[in-house]
From TrEMBL:
Protein name as catalogued: Stage 0 sporulation protein A homolog
Residue span, HTH LytTR-type domain: 144-235
Originating organism: Candidatus Acetatifactor stercoripullorum
Chain's role: May play the central regulatory role in sporulation. It may be an element of the effector pathway responsible for the activation of sporulation genes in response to nutritional stress. Spo0A may act in concert with spo0H (a sigma factor) to control the expression of some genes that are critical to the sporulation process.
Domain of life of the native organism: Bacteria
Domain Response regulatory: 3-123
Keyword Acyltransferase carried by entry: no
Amino acid sequence: MKKFVICDDETFYLEKVKTLVQENLEKAGVTDVELYAFSSGTKLLEQEKLLAKCQAVFLDINMQDCSGLDIAFQIKQKNPDILLIFVTAYMDYVLAGYQAEAFRFLLKDDLEAMMRECILALLEKIDKVNASIFLEFSDGARNIRVKHILYVESFGHKLYFHMQGEAKKQHEMYGNLSDLEKRLREYGFCRVHKSYLVNMQFVESMKRYQITLTNGQFLPIPKDKFQWVREEYMKAMEEI
């Protein structure tokens, strides 16, 4: 069961956002979402167990008891996979909102028109974030979460899966990197080198002719592929 949170200190907008989210989920044929409403950002932060299981938070930027942006930064610090949708009467906070990794901005004066696209994009993003792939590894077949794959290395006739987070274990299998690339491309993976298929969300930085991953590791980029890889990197940054 998915969990969405709505937080706004104005009762009118709290109820309005909740109603619009529910209506658009029903239109999309989605029935496995629980909605939770809070009128205080401070009270929301106290709900650590709920936030740990939550997929999305609709958050008012301007609240009396606290700054919505401060709440957003604290939520993302502990729960980096949560998608933040800022609900605001002004667009002055867009830059700061993107620093908090905002997924969408919804204007309070235009909620009805903007909510439909937001919900559809949100559901698509959640599906990708939670996606798994079934693979035949040397020690047995299993599903692994796509978001846990840091990069895949090809050496000889084997593929080595370098993982991150709680799933920080290297898996190996016989296979072709080109075939795997076709399966993982839609999830933001890029073939930066003939031997490396990289999950672009874990690229910390990029310079000639290499990328640095979030774990501090460097991977080479061939000179003739550098421009293309840079363009793919920029696309990935826009989607994250």
